[in-house]
Amino acid sequence: MSRIGRQPIALPKGVTTSVEGDVFKVKGPKGELAVPFNHELIIKQDGDNVIVERPSEQQRHRALHGLTRTLVANAIKGVSDGFTINLELRGVGYRAKMNGKALELTIGYSHPVIIEPPAGVSFAVPEATKIDVSGIDKQLVGQVAANVRKVRKPDAYHGKGVRFLGQHIALKAGKAGATGGKGKK
Fold it and tell me: Of 15, 126, 133, 166, whose CB is crowded by the most CB atoms within 10 A?
């Protein structure tokens, strides 16, 4: 049996769940999410736990078992606690600020880059070089954070750009001729 799929999911206080056809719905203090799942799997509530079961040991059912359990667990955690991804800016003059609900980045282009958040996601700028992307849908928060990072990916030679907080960038050495290497006469 799947190690992930067989684990029960604890329901926090204030979170309610329901299964309507092929959709698992969860409602909590931060909002409401709907998770579509394969109709062959069984999702049921047992007291303060949610359990995902599979009908057989077929490879397809085993693969869907762990996936469905993880998607349901992420939805439950999202409506109770939410998800946040932290980004940081590295580079001379690189900074971020809020422009209403939108994020305005000054990151080395001739113009500021403005990013509007989609519904369910919000930006925060605690410092000029730090960005917090928050929301209840883990996939959407991750995608928006990746889109912000894509505006100016970290440079391989200097490390300048937008990166995830704590991300290590392996820097390349650069040209050998610039350090007085061999080959000059």
Answer: 133
CB 123 within 8 A of CB 132: yes
Fold of 9-80: Outer Surface Protein A; domain 3 (3.90.930)
Q: State the pTM of this model.
A: 0.87
pLDDT computed for residue 3 by the predictor:
84
Report the topology of domain 83-164.
Outer Surface Protein A; domain 3 (3.90.930)
- The 3-class SS string of the chain reads CCCCCCCCEECCCCCEEEEECCEEEEEECCEEEEEECCCCCEEEEECCEEEEECCCCCHHHHHHHHHHHHHHHHHHHHHHCCEEEEEEEECCCCEEEEECCEEEEECCCCCCEEECCCCCEEEEEEECCEEEEEECCHHHHHHHHHHHHHCCCCCCCCCCEEEECCCCCCCCCCCCHHHCCCCCC
Instruction: Please write the tens of the pLDDT for every residue from 99-146.
Output: 999 999 999 999 999 999 999 999 999 999 999 999 999 999 999 999
Compute and round to an integer the Cα radius of gyration of the chain.
Answer: 22
